[in-house]
Amino acid sequence: RPTPLTLLGTGAMGTALARAWLAAGHPVTVWNRTPARAAALAGQGATVAASAADAVAAGRLVITCLLDDASVGATLDGADLTGRDLVNLTTGTPEEGRDRAAWAEARGARFLDAGIMAVPPMIGAANSGAYVFYSGSAALFEEHRDTLAVPAGATYVGADPGFAALHDVALLSAMNGMFAGITHAFALIRRQDIAPKDFAPLLVSWLTAMAPMAHQAAERLDSGDYSTDVVSNLAMQVAGNTTLLRTAEEQGVSPELLTPYLALMERRLAAGHGDEDTTGLIDLLLTGR
Ligand code: NDP
Protein backbone atom coordinates (compact mmCIF):
# COMPACT_ATOMS: atom_id res chain seq x y z
CA ARG A 1 0.00 0.00 0.00
CA PRO A 2 1.36 3.45 -0.88
CA THR A 3 2.82 5.19 2.17
CA PRO A 4 1.27 8.50 3.26
CA LEU A 5 3.85 11.27 3.53
CA THR A 6 4.21 14.89 4.51
CA LEU A 7 6.19 17.32 2.36
CA LEU A 8 7.32 20.67 3.74
CA GLY A 9 8.36 23.09 1.00
CA THR A 10 6.66 23.22 -2.39
CA GLY A 11 9.11 25.35 -4.33
CA ALA A 12 10.26 24.21 -7.76
CA MET A 13 11.80 20.98 -6.46
CA GLY A 14 9.20 20.27 -3.76
CA THR A 15 6.38 20.66 -6.28
CA ALA A 16 8.03 18.22 -8.69
CA LEU A 17 8.50 15.71 -5.85
CA ALA A 18 4.91 16.08 -4.66
CA ARG A 19 3.58 15.52 -8.19
CA ALA A 20 5.64 12.33 -8.56
CA TRP A 21 4.39 10.88 -5.25
CA LEU A 22 0.80 11.87 -6.01
CA ALA A 23 1.02 10.31 -9.46
CA ALA A 24 2.22 7.08 -7.85
CA GLY A 25 -0.81 7.07 -5.54
CA HIS A 26 0.82 8.17 -2.28
CA PRO A 27 -1.38 10.32 -0.03
CA VAL A 28 0.60 13.58 0.32
CA THR A 29 0.13 16.34 2.89
CA VAL A 30 1.90 19.55 1.89
CA TRP A 31 2.78 22.79 3.60
CA ASN A 32 4.59 25.83 2.23
CA ARG A 33 5.49 29.16 3.85
CA THR A 34 3.76 31.00 1.01
CA PRO A 35 0.39 29.16 1.04
CA ALA A 36 -0.44 29.77 -2.64
CA ARG A 37 2.42 27.52 -3.78
CA ALA A 38 1.07 24.59 -1.73
CA ALA A 39 -2.54 25.28 -2.68
CA ALA A 40 -1.64 24.71 -6.33
CA LEU A 41 -1.12 21.02 -5.47
CA ALA A 42 -4.58 20.58 -3.93
CA GLY A 43 -6.07 20.18 -7.40
CA GLN A 44 -3.77 17.21 -7.91
CA GLY A 45 -4.93 15.49 -4.78
CA ALA A 46 -2.61 16.82 -2.07
CA THR A 47 -3.94 17.73 1.37
CA VAL A 48 -2.83 21.24 2.31
CA ALA A 49 -1.98 21.68 5.99
CA ALA A 50 -2.55 25.01 7.74
CA SER A 51 0.80 24.96 9.53
CA ALA A 52 4.08 23.09 9.42
CA ALA A 53 3.28 21.56 12.83
CA ASP A 54 -0.08 20.30 11.51
CA ALA A 55 1.64 18.83 8.46
CA VAL A 56 4.16 17.00 10.65
CA ALA A 57 1.33 15.70 12.84
CA ALA A 58 -0.41 14.24 9.76
CA GLY A 59 1.96 11.34 9.23
CA ARG A 60 5.11 9.51 10.22
CA LEU A 61 7.21 10.09 7.08
CA VAL A 62 8.13 13.78 6.91
CA ILE A 63 10.13 15.21 4.02
CA THR A 64 11.64 18.69 3.91
CA CYS A 65 12.64 20.35 0.65
CA LEU A 66 13.41 23.92 1.64
CA LEU A 67 15.86 26.60 0.60
CA ASP A 68 18.64 25.86 3.11
CA ASP A 69 19.34 24.32 6.50
CA ALA A 70 18.29 27.46 8.38
CA SER A 71 14.84 27.30 6.78
CA VAL A 72 14.54 23.64 7.87
CA GLY A 73 15.24 24.67 11.49
CA ALA A 74 12.79 27.59 11.27
CA THR A 75 10.05 25.43 9.70
CA LEU A 76 10.30 22.52 12.15
CA ASP A 77 10.75 24.74 15.19
CA GLY A 78 7.28 24.27 16.67
CA ALA A 79 6.58 20.76 15.35
CA ASP A 80 6.50 17.59 17.46
CA LEU A 81 8.99 15.23 15.82
CA THR A 82 8.56 12.37 18.30
CA GLY A 83 8.38 9.07 16.43
CA ARG A 84 8.75 10.77 13.05
CA ASP A 85 10.96 9.67 10.16
CA LEU A 86 12.50 12.90 8.91
CA VAL A 87 14.08 12.94 5.44
CA ASN A 88 15.81 16.20 4.56
CA LEU A 89 16.01 16.80 0.81
CA THR A 90 17.38 20.31 1.35
CA THR A 91 20.86 20.97 -0.02
CA GLY A 92 23.41 21.66 2.71
CA THR A 93 26.95 20.98 3.84
CA PRO A 94 28.04 17.67 5.44
CA GLU A 95 28.38 19.42 8.81
CA GLU A 96 24.84 20.80 8.53
CA GLY A 97 23.63 17.26 7.80
CA ARG A 98 25.36 15.88 10.90
CA ASP A 99 24.10 18.69 13.13
CA ARG A 100 20.56 18.35 11.78
CA ALA A 101 20.68 14.58 12.43
CA ALA A 102 21.68 15.12 16.06
CA TRP A 103 18.99 17.81 16.34
CA ALA A 104 16.30 15.49 14.95
CA GLU A 105 17.37 12.50 17.05
CA ALA A 106 17.29 14.65 20.19
CA ARG A 107 13.63 15.34 19.30
CA GLY A 108 12.80 11.64 19.00
CA ALA A 109 12.98 11.30 15.20
CA ARG A 110 14.96 9.03 12.91
CA PHE A 111 16.82 11.06 10.28
CA LEU A 112 18.11 10.78 6.74
CA ASP A 113 19.90 13.58 4.97
CA ALA A 114 19.85 13.73 1.19
CA GLY A 115 21.38 15.36 -1.87
CA ILE A 116 19.34 15.53 -5.07
CA MET A 117 21.27 14.87 -8.29
CA ALA A 118 18.63 16.25 -10.64
CA VAL A 119 16.74 19.34 -11.72
CA PRO A 120 12.95 19.48 -11.28
CA PRO A 121 12.00 18.39 -14.85
CA MET A 122 13.95 15.13 -14.29
CA ILE A 123 11.91 14.24 -11.18
CA GLY A 124 9.41 11.45 -11.78
CA ALA A 125 10.41 11.21 -15.45
CA ALA A 126 11.21 7.75 -16.76
CA ASN A 127 14.90 7.07 -17.52
CA SER A 128 15.93 10.63 -16.67
CA GLY A 129 18.93 9.36 -14.69
CA ALA A 130 17.79 11.40 -11.69
CA TYR A 131 18.80 10.05 -8.31
CA VAL A 132 19.20 11.13 -4.71
CA PHE A 133 22.03 10.37 -2.28
CA TYR A 134 20.82 9.40 1.19
CA SER A 135 22.80 9.00 4.41
CA GLY A 136 21.95 8.57 8.07
CA SER A 137 19.54 6.02 9.55
CA ALA A 138 19.86 2.76 7.60
CA ALA A 139 16.68 1.47 9.25
CA LEU A 140 14.72 4.48 8.00
CA PHE A 141 16.15 4.06 4.50
CA GLU A 142 15.31 0.35 4.38
CA GLU A 143 11.77 0.92 5.60
CA HIS A 144 10.97 3.73 3.14
CA ARG A 145 13.27 2.80 0.28
CA ASP A 146 10.41 2.09 -2.18
CA THR A 147 8.63 5.35 -1.37
CA LEU A 148 11.86 7.37 -1.59
CA ALA A 149 12.63 5.78 -4.97
CA VAL A 150 9.39 7.07 -6.56
CA PRO A 151 10.53 10.56 -7.67
CA ALA A 152 14.15 9.56 -8.45
CA GLY A 153 16.57 6.71 -7.84
CA ALA A 154 17.60 6.26 -4.20
CA THR A 155 21.29 5.68 -3.41
CA TYR A 156 22.30 5.11 0.23
CA VAL A 157 25.89 6.17 0.93
CA GLY A 158 26.34 5.47 4.63
CA ALA A 159 25.29 5.90 8.24
CA ASP A 160 27.23 9.16 8.60
CA PRO A 161 24.50 11.77 8.00
CA GLY A 162 27.08 14.05 6.39
CA PHE A 163 27.86 11.65 3.54
CA ALA A 164 24.88 12.47 1.30
CA ALA A 165 25.82 16.16 1.23
CA LEU A 166 29.49 15.27 0.80
CA HIS A 167 28.77 13.11 -2.26
CA ASP A 168 26.37 15.71 -3.65
CA VAL A 169 28.79 18.61 -3.24
CA ALA A 170 31.76 16.61 -4.53
CA LEU A 171 29.88 15.87 -7.76
CA LEU A 172 28.68 19.46 -8.08
CA SER A 173 32.22 20.72 -7.52
CA ALA A 174 33.52 18.47 -10.30
CA MET A 175 30.73 19.72 -12.53
CA ASN A 176 31.77 23.31 -11.83
CA GLY A 177 35.28 22.52 -12.96
CA MET A 178 33.91 20.99 -16.14
CA PHE A 179 31.71 24.02 -16.82
CA ALA A 180 34.71 26.30 -16.21
CA GLY A 181 36.57 24.37 -18.90
CA ILE A 182 33.61 24.55 -21.29
CA THR A 183 33.37 28.30 -20.67
CA HIS A 184 37.04 28.80 -21.49
CA ALA A 185 36.87 26.59 -24.59
CA PHE A 186 33.91 28.50 -26.06
CA ALA A 187 35.67 31.81 -25.32
CA LEU A 188 38.71 30.56 -27.27
CA ILE A 189 36.72 29.79 -30.43
CA ARG A 190 34.38 32.76 -30.12
CA ARG A 191 36.59 35.32 -31.85
CA GLN A 192 36.99 33.06 -34.89
CA ASP A 193 34.60 32.03 -37.60
CA ILE A 194 33.83 28.72 -35.89
CA ALA A 195 30.17 27.96 -35.30
CA PRO A 196 29.50 27.14 -31.63
CA LYS A 197 27.04 24.50 -32.80
CA ASP A 198 29.79 22.77 -34.79
CA PHE A 199 32.18 22.99 -31.88
CA ALA A 200 29.81 21.74 -29.14
CA PRO A 201 29.68 18.08 -30.29
CA LEU A 202 33.50 17.96 -30.36
CA LEU A 203 33.61 19.33 -26.84
CA VAL A 204 31.05 16.84 -25.55
CA SER A 205 32.73 13.80 -27.06
CA TRP A 206 36.17 14.88 -25.81
CA LEU A 207 34.94 15.45 -22.26
CA THR A 208 33.08 12.13 -22.37
CA ALA A 209 36.25 10.35 -23.54
CA MET A 210 38.33 11.97 -20.79
CA ALA A 211 35.91 11.49 -17.87
CA PRO A 212 36.93 7.84 -17.22
CA MET A 213 40.37 9.15 -16.17
CA ALA A 214 38.70 9.45 -12.77
CA HIS A 215 38.93 5.63 -12.48
CA GLN A 216 42.70 5.78 -12.94
CA ALA A 217 43.00 8.50 -10.31
CA ALA A 218 41.05 6.27 -7.91
CA GLU A 219 43.38 3.33 -8.59
CA ARG A 220 46.42 5.52 -8.03
CA LEU A 221 45.02 6.92 -4.79
CA ASP A 222 44.51 3.34 -3.61
CA SER A 223 47.98 2.15 -4.60
CA GLY A 224 49.79 5.34 -3.57
CA ASP A 225 51.87 5.07 -6.76
CA TYR A 226 51.33 8.21 -8.86
CA SER A 227 54.18 7.70 -11.31
CA THR A 228 53.20 7.33 -14.94
CA ASP A 229 54.72 6.37 -18.23
CA VAL A 230 51.34 6.00 -19.96
CA VAL A 231 49.80 9.49 -19.85
CA SER A 232 51.90 12.65 -20.05
CA ASN A 233 53.61 13.29 -16.76
CA LEU A 234 53.54 16.56 -14.83
CA ALA A 235 56.83 17.79 -16.30
CA MET A 236 55.40 17.44 -19.82
CA GLN A 237 52.02 18.87 -18.84
CA VAL A 238 53.52 21.97 -17.23
CA ALA A 239 55.62 22.55 -20.33
CA GLY A 240 52.50 22.13 -22.47
CA ASN A 241 50.55 24.58 -20.33
CA THR A 242 52.45 27.49 -21.85
CA THR A 243 50.72 26.61 -25.14
CA LEU A 244 47.34 26.85 -23.41
CA LEU A 245 48.25 30.22 -21.88
CA ARG A 246 49.79 31.65 -25.05
CA THR A 247 46.72 30.60 -27.04
CA ALA A 248 44.46 32.37 -24.55
CA GLU A 249 46.61 35.47 -24.92
CA GLU A 250 46.60 35.29 -28.73
CA GLN A 251 42.82 34.95 -28.76
CA GLY A 252 42.38 37.79 -26.27
CA VAL A 253 40.76 35.49 -23.70
CA SER A 254 41.27 35.95 -19.97
CA PRO A 255 43.12 32.93 -18.54
CA GLU A 256 41.53 33.37 -15.10
CA LEU A 257 39.60 30.09 -15.17
CA LEU A 258 42.66 28.18 -16.31
CA THR A 259 45.46 29.55 -14.15
CA PRO A 260 44.55 28.14 -10.71
CA TYR A 261 44.79 24.56 -11.95
CA LEU A 262 48.01 25.24 -13.87
CA ALA A 263 49.51 26.89 -10.79
CA LEU A 264 48.75 23.77 -8.77
CA MET A 265 50.57 21.62 -11.34
CA GLU A 266 53.59 23.93 -11.22
CA ARG A 267 53.76 23.70 -7.42
CA ARG A 268 53.63 19.92 -7.51
CA LEU A 269 56.33 19.86 -10.19
CA ALA A 270 58.50 22.28 -8.19
CA ALA A 271 58.22 19.89 -5.21
CA GLY A 272 59.96 17.25 -7.33
CA HIS A 273 57.06 15.20 -8.70
CA GLY A 274 57.63 15.65 -12.44
CA ASP A 275 57.35 11.90 -13.12
CA GLU A 276 53.80 11.68 -11.74
CA ASP A 277 50.41 12.19 -13.32
CA THR A 278 48.03 14.75 -11.79
CA THR A 279 46.83 12.51 -8.92
CA GLY A 280 49.31 14.18 -6.56
CA LEU A 281 47.39 17.45 -6.94
CA ILE A 282 44.76 15.87 -4.70
CA ASP A 283 47.34 15.53 -1.93
CA LEU A 284 48.44 19.09 -2.59
CA LEU A 285 44.87 20.33 -1.98
CA LEU A 286 44.71 18.31 1.25
CA THR A 287 48.01 19.40 2.71
CA GLY A 288 48.37 22.83 1.13
CA ARG A 289 51.94 22.02 0.09
P1 NDP B 1 12.75 27.27 -4.51
O1 NDP B 1 13.41 28.59 -4.37
O2 NDP B 1 11.85 27.05 -5.67
O3 NDP B 1 11.92 26.97 -3.19
C1 NDP B 1 12.46 27.23 -1.93
C2 NDP B 1 11.51 26.73 -0.88
O4 NDP B 1 12.03 27.04 0.42
C3 NDP B 1 10.13 27.39 -0.97
O5 NDP B 1 9.17 26.45 -0.58
C4 NDP B 1 10.27 28.51 0.05
O6 NDP B 1 9.05 28.95 0.55
C5 NDP B 1 11.04 27.78 1.13
N1 NDP B 1 11.68 28.67 2.08
C6 NDP B 1 12.71 29.53 1.86
N2 NDP B 1 13.06 30.15 3.00
C7 NDP B 1 12.23 29.67 3.95
C8 NDP B 1 12.10 29.92 5.34
N3 NDP B 1 12.91 30.77 5.98
N4 NDP B 1 11.15 29.25 6.03
C9 NDP B 1 10.33 28.36 5.39
N5 NDP B 1 10.40 28.10 4.08
C10 NDP B 1 11.35 28.74 3.38
O7 NDP B 1 13.89 26.19 -4.46
P2 NDP B 1 13.89 24.66 -4.96
O8 NDP B 1 12.54 24.07 -4.70
O9 NDP B 1 14.43 24.60 -6.32
O10 NDP B 1 14.96 24.05 -3.97
C11 NDP B 1 14.62 23.42 -2.75
C12 NDP B 1 15.83 22.60 -2.32
O11 NDP B 1 16.10 21.63 -3.32
C13 NDP B 1 17.09 23.45 -2.15
O12 NDP B 1 17.82 23.02 -1.04
C14 NDP B 1 17.85 23.16 -3.43
O13 NDP B 1 19.24 23.30 -3.28
C15 NDP B 1 17.46 21.71 -3.68
N6 NDP B 1 17.70 21.33 -5.06
C16 NDP B 1 17.12 22.05 -6.07
C17 NDP B 1 17.45 21.76 -7.38
C18 NDP B 1 16.87 22.53 -8.50
O14 NDP B 1 17.35 22.38 -9.65
N7 NDP B 1 15.86 23.36 -8.29
C19 NDP B 1 18.42 20.69 -7.72
C20 NDP B 1 18.90 19.95 -6.59
C21 NDP B 1 18.56 20.30 -5.31
P3 NDP B 1 8.29 30.20 -0.15
O15 NDP B 1 7.52 29.62 -1.29
O16 NDP B 1 7.43 30.72 0.95
O17 NDP B 1 9.36 31.17 -0.57
Task: Name a few traits of the molecule.
binds NADPH dihydro-nicotinamide-adenine-dinucleotide phosphate; Rossmann fold; 8 strands; 2 domains; alpha/beta; 12 helices; single chain; 289 residues
Shape designation: elongated
Report how far the terminal alpha carbons are from each other.
56 Å
Total number of distinct structural domains:
2
Percent in strands: 5-15%
Poorly predicted runs: none
Q: Which superfamily, in CATH terms, is the homologous superfamily of the largest domain?
A: NAD(P)-binding Rossmann-like Domain
Radius of gyration, taken over Cα atoms and rounded to an integer in Å: 23 Å
Number of helices: 12
The spatial strand order of the largest sheet comes to 3-2-1-4-5-6-7-8
The distinct ligands, each listed once, are: NADPH dihydro-nicotinamide-adenine-dinucleotide phosphate
| CATH topology term of the largest domain | Rossmann fold
* CATH class label of the largest domain: Alpha Beta
Q: Can you name the CATH architecture of the largest domain?
A: 3-Layer(aba) Sandwich
Mean pLDDT: 96
SS-based structural class?
alpha/beta
- The helix content is 40-55%
How are helices and strands ordered from N to C?
EHEHEHEHEHEEHEHHHHHH
Total number of β-strand segments? 8
Largest sheet: 8 strands, mixed
Domain NADPH-dependent reductive aminase-like C-terminal: 160-285
Pfam families: NAD_binding_2, RedAm-like_C
InterPro entries: 6PGD_dom2, 6PGDH_NADP-bd, HIBADH-related, HIBADH-related_NP60_sf, NAD(P)-bd_dom_sf, RedAm-like_C
Protein name: NAD(P)-dependent oxidoreductase
